[in-house]
Every structure is written in structure tokens, then in C-alpha cells.
From TrEMBL:
It holds the Pfam family DctM. InterPro entries: DctM, TRAP_DctM. It comes from the Bacteria. The chain crosses the membrane at residues 7-28, 34-55, 67-85, 105-135, 147-171, 186-207, 228-249, 273-294, 306-328, 334-350, 370-388, 408-436, 448-474, 504-525. The lineage of its organism: Bacteria, Pseudomonadati, Pseudomonadota, Betaproteobacteria, Burkholderiales. PANTHER family: SIALIC ACID TRAP TRANSPORTER PERMEASE PROTEIN SIAT-RELATED, SLL1103 PROTEIN. This is TRAP transporter large permease subunit. Keywords: Cell inner membrane, Cell membrane, Membrane, Transmembrane, Transmembrane helix, Transport. Residues 575-588 have a biased composition (Low complexity).
């Protein structure tokens, strides 16, 4: 027992691992470990029984946490969009645009995955939707099964890092940082990771073209009456939209100056990107609407289809991310507007009914309850762990690592990568992050950069063979047995589990490469944040102290002695002695304040 009392924190952490290995749910393992070791610590005298008096206040704090309100809002938004058929429309349309290229279908999956990530933030919805829709098409036209599986699973995980992401909300809450700051910091890394996926598809198209064949001419649906593809019209519309967006981005400061009525010299890069994208998209949508209403015939069928399918999700992205980046709405308010926007979009497409709404609300309630149970369990565990000086033990353990900040970052990311084999991002966020964040802060590491770095690393938990959740989601919708293709009538071979695992490995390595890039170039995250105002707190304290002293300093009490207004006229002779005073005696004895007062006012 003496050994346990002397090493209570490491024993408690080991006990949690035992609970998890035994197969108990994570939420209950955290709570049970916290309560058990709390009672054991009281019995051994590690801390007093007053520790459990903190628990009600902690639980009330969880219920009053407005940041976590964003979780059900963004979940509901994603589920409504997924069930209303938006993913199907996007995949079909973008697939038709890029299909004639080698690897075009894979490229379409990556782009649609990024767009779904920016509108839903839910990995399961993205992977299942794209697996059901794009997997049969890719297999039909000869795509390699491993590549098709890997690109679908990896593109779905972009919802982890591209805002609005649920993991970024949880990380912001655990680190005590603003959700908006983490969204801004993750903006460029998220799309940079998408760029790595696209480069990998292009490399396969060049060096292994048989793995990524082009869409055959008979599979291209949008054709003009004269047989042309309509790409010229689409290209001109895209060029006009891009020029408008670039012009708006370059003159964003002038727009802000006009809007606010005062000079604005700096606008954050992420805000420029979102607002410029919205402006360019709105111009394309306006041209398409005018063309459709006036029957001018300026746009091809493909250009109209792309415009009317892509613009609504892009406007929803601006409604959610734009209002957050502009400071108009908090992430919770942005999530609420996004959920309402998704309902309006589904209603405008006549794709929502009471059954769909009930399913979405039911799934949202389940996921939100799952998150809250983990938060409660993690709170109980962390409360007891902190009372046992667990963070001090972890800090001393990690402070001895060689290499300073770099050594700490390498060790932490390797540890997260290994733990991601067994734990998902929710569990990692509530178990590991609260312990690591204070240590990173003491070492001078920017917590926003640290949070985005961990979020990219936690993506690997979805692609880890054999426990990756994205692989499980894809396995549930990928064909397990030979089937007859509905279009060609051919018998298609199934997709095996090993092919899914094999296809995930290259994208897993790309995610780890992104982690290394962020460590080497932290400016990819920090350059998007609002400029911090450096304040000299010492100078501010001295100034406040001076003002306080000036206010407290009052004029001395004037009793009329020697006052210029009440003094007697100057006399060249000697002054008369006070009554009762002898010559040469002091006029106000310091040892008798009563006599001094009598001499001041005159004794009768």
C-alpha cells in the first residue's frame, strides 16, 4: 500500500488502461477509474474526502458549457445534408466534370469529400455516402479496388480537420481556447492535406494509369444537342467567377473600410478566402439564374448543372464559416444557422419529410449523448488525477525528454499515433489532451498550433488498420460478395477487407507527412490567426499603482496654524507664550496629544 500511495498517479493511469483493455466502454471506464481510485486515495490518505465535494460543481459546469452546444448543431446539419441527397448530387456532378481525365473519379471523390467536410463535419456520414455512391461507379469502370477504398476512406476523414470539425470543438474546449481560433488555424492545413491527396491521385494517373482509368464517352451524361461536352462554357464561367473572387480578395481592406466607415489596413487570410469564394460563387449563380430565366442559352447543360449543384453548399459554407471568421457569430450560433440552412436547402429540393427528420434527430441525440457521457467520465477521472498531482508527474516525465520543444512534439505525436490504433479522437481528446496541453503551454508552444497538430494526427485513428473507424464504415457499405452491376450487367468481384486496409496505408502516410510539415512550418497555422496585441503588464501595473496613489492622497487637515488666510499679521516682536507654557518649552509636546489639541484650539 505504501508503494501505491507513493506512486498513486502512475498506478491510477495504469488502472485506466486495464479498464479499457477489459473492454468496458470508454465513458464508464473513465468514470469507474476515477471513483475507484478516488475512494482508494482517501483510504490511503493521498487526499481528503473533500475531493468529491468538487464533483457536483464540475458536472454543473459541463451542463453550462455553451461551446459543446455546437456538437449537436453541426451533427444535425451534416445528417440532414447527407440524407437529403446532397452528397449524391455532388458526386454525380463533379464526377461528370473530371471523369474524362485519368483518375477523374478519384479526384471527384477527394473534392466532394472536402466539400462535405466543410458542410457536415461528420466522418461517418461522408464515408458512408461516398462509399454507397462512388464505389460501384469506380469499380464499374475499372478502378483498382485498393485505391478506390483508400481514396473514399481518406476523403471522408477530411471532416476531422476541415472546419466545421467536431474534433476541433472538443479540442478547443479541453485546451481553453476559442473554437474560432482553431477553425482559422486548421483552414489552410485541412485544404493542404486535400492537396496531398490530389497529388497522389495525379502521380498514379501518370505512373500507373491502369489503376485510375478515365470515364468512357458513353458514361458522360451531360451532352449538348450538337454533341459537344460543354466544357468551354463551364471554363468561361469558372474564369469569370475566379477573377471576381481574386479582385474581391485583393480589395478586401477597401471593402471593410467602406463597410465599417473607418480605415482597415489588415484582413486575415482565411476571411479573405471565405468571403472571396462567396463573392465569386454568387456571381456564377447570378449568371446561371439570369441565363435560365431569360433562356439566353449562354451556358451549357454541364455548366448549369455544376452551378446549381455546387453553389448551395458553398453558400452554406459561407453561412457557417464566414460568419464565424467575420466575428458575426460564435461557433455555436454558426452551427445553429448551419442546421437551419440545411433544413431550408432540403426543403427547397423537396427532399425532407418527417421520417427523415426523425432519423436525423435520433442519430444526433445518440452522438451528443455519447459525447456528454465521455465528458462526464473524463471529468471524474481528471479531477481525481489532478488531486493526486498527476499532471506534475506527467510534466516531470516529459520534461526529461531530450530536444526541448521538438523532442516533446515528436514524442507526443508518436504517442498519439500509437494510441490511435486503439482509441478514437473523442477518447484521445478527453484522456490525453488535458494532460498534455498544460505542459505544452509551459514550454511556450502555441496551443492553437498544438491543437491543430494533434487534430491532424488524430485523423490517423480513422485509417489505422485494423481498427480504423473509417475502414469499418466503408466495410459496412462495400460489396462483400460477387454482385451483378446494374448498368453493365457484368458480375463484379467483391471488395475484400485486406484490399480496404491496403488502400488506406498510402493515405495514412500522407497524413503523417502533413504532421511533419506542420511541425516544420508552424506558420501554416499561426499566420491565419488574428494578430495579438502585446501588452507590457508591468508598465500597466505601475501606471495603475500611480493613479491609485494619486487618488488616495488627500490634503492634510488645516487647523489654521500658520495658514496664510488665518495667520496673525507679522510682528517684529517675540510671540507671546501659550497659556500654561513656560519659556523654552515646546509648544506641542509629542508625548501628550491631549495637551497638543488644547494648545491648538485654546484651553478656557
Amino acid at each position: 500500500m505504501e508503494f501505491i500511495a507513493a506512486n498513486f498517479a502512475p498506478v491510477m493511469f495504469a488502472g485506466l488502461i486495464v479498464f479499457l483493455i477489459l473492454g468496458f466502454p470508454v465513458a464508464f471506464s473513465l468514470g469507474a477509474a476515477g471513483l475507484f481510485f478516488g475512494l482508494l486515495g482517501i483510504e490511503l490518505g493521498v487526499f481528503t474526502s473533500a475531493i468529491f465535494s468538487w464533483l457536483p460543481q464540475r458536472l454543473i459546469g459541463i451542463m453550462a458549457n455553451e461551446t459543446l452546444l455546437a456538437v449537436p448543431f453541426f451533427t444535425l446539419m451534416g445528417l440532414i445534408l447527407e440524407r437529403s441527397g446532397m452528397a449524391e448530387d455532388l458526386l454525380e456532378t463533379v464526377g461528370q466534370v473530371f471523369g474524362p481525365l485519368r483518375g477523374g473519379l478519384a479526384l471527384a471523390v477527394v473534392l466532394v469529400g472536402a466539400m462535405l467536410a466543410a458542410t457536415t463535419g461528420v466522418v461517418a456520414a461522408s464515408v458512408i455516402s461516398m462509399g454507397l455512391i462512388s464505389m460501384p461507379i469506380m469499380l464499374r469502370y475499372g478502378y483498382d479496388r485498393s485505391l478506390a477504398s483508400g481514396v473514399i476512406a481518406a476523403s471522408g476523414t477530411l471532416a476531422q480537420i476541415i472546419p466545421p470539425s467536431l474534433v476541433l470543438i472538443v479540442l478547443a474546449d479541453q485546451m481553453g481556447k476559442s473554437v474560432g481560433d482553431l477553425y482559422k488555424g486548421a483552414f489552410i492545413p485541412g485544404f493542404a492535406l486535400m492537396g496531398l491527396y490530389i497529388l497522389w491521385v495525379f502521380a498514379l494517373a501518370i505512373f500507373k494509369p491502369r489503376m485510375v482509368p478515365a470515364l468512357p464517352p458513353e458514361a458522360r451524361a451531360f451532352r449538348e444537342p450538337n454533341g459537344s461536352s460543354g466544357y468551354l462554357s463551364l471554363g468561361v464561367l469558372a474564369l469569370l467567377s475566379t477573377l471576381a473572387a481574386v479582385f474581391l480578395a485583393e480589395h478586401m481592406e477597401a471593402v471593410h473600410t467602406w463597410w465599417q466607415g473607418k480605415p482597415v489596413e489588415f484582413v486575415p487570410k482565411d476571411e479573405k478566402i471565405v468571403v472571396a469564394m462567396c463573392g465569386g460563387s454568387f456571381l456564377a449563380w447570378l449568371i446561371a439564374v439570369v441565363n435560365k430565366l431569360t433562356h439566353l442559352g449562354l451556358l451549357s447543360k454541364l455548366a448549369e448543372r455544376v452551378t446549381f449543384v455546387l453553389i448551395p453548399p458553398l453558400l452554406l459554407i459561407f453561412l457557417v464559416l464566414g460568419t464565424i471568421f467575420l466575428g458575426v457569430a460564435t461557433p455555436t450560433e454558426g452551427g445553429a444557422m448551419g442546421a437551419m440552412g440545411a433544413l431550408i436547402m432540403a426543403a427547397m429540393r423537396h427532399r425532407i419529410n418527417m421520417s427523415l427528420l426523425k432519423q436525423a434527430l435520433n442519430t444526433t441525440t445518440k452522438l451528443s449523448s455519447f459525447v456528454m457521457f465521455i465528458v462526464v467520465g473524463a471529468t471524474i477521472f481528471s479531477m481525481v488525477f489532478q488531486a493526486a498531482d498527476g499532471p506534475v508527474w506527467v510534466e516531470h516525465l516529459l520534461a526529461k525528454l531530450p530536444g526541448g520543444q521538438l523532442g516533446f512534439l515528436i514524442f507526443v505525436n508518436v504517442m498519439i499515433f500509437v494510441l490511435a490504433f486503439f482509441l478514437d479522437f473523442f477518447e484521445l481528446s478527453f484522456i490525453v489532451v488535458p494532460v498534455l496541453a498544460p505542459i505544452a503551454d509551459k514550454m511556450g508552444i502555441d496551443l492553437v498550433w498544438f491543437g491543430v497538430l494533434l487534430a491532424v494526427n488524430m485523423q490517423t485513428s480513422f485509417l489505422h488498420p485494423p481498427f480504423g473507424f473509417a475502414l469499418f464504415y466503408l466495410r459496412s457499405v462495400a460489396p462483400e460478395k460477387p454482385y451483378v452491376d446494374a448498368v453493365t450487367g457484368k458480375t463484379m468481384a467483391p471488395v475484400t477487407t485486406m484490399q480496404i486496409y491496403k488502400g488506406a496505408i498510402p493515405f495514412l502516410l500522407l497524413q503523417l507527412s502533413m504532421v511533419a510539415i506542420l511541425i516544420a512550418f508552424p506558420g501554416l497555422v499561426t499566420s491565419n490567426l488574428d494578430k495579438q496585441v502585446n501588452v507590457d503588464m508591468k508598465a500597466v501595473g505601475e501606471q495603475m499603482l500611480e493613479q491609485l496613489n494619486e487618488e488616495e492622497a488627500e490634503p492634510e487637515l488645516d487647523l489654521g496654524i500658520g495658514s496664510p488666510d488665518t495667520a496673525a499679521p507679522a510682528d517684529t516682536g517675540s510671540a507671546l507664550p501659550e497659556p500654561g507654557a513656560t519659556e523654552g518649552a515646546p509648544a506641542a509636546p509629542e508625548d501628550d496629544p491631549v495637551k497638543a489639541l488644547e494648545q491648538s484650539v485654546g484651553k478656557p
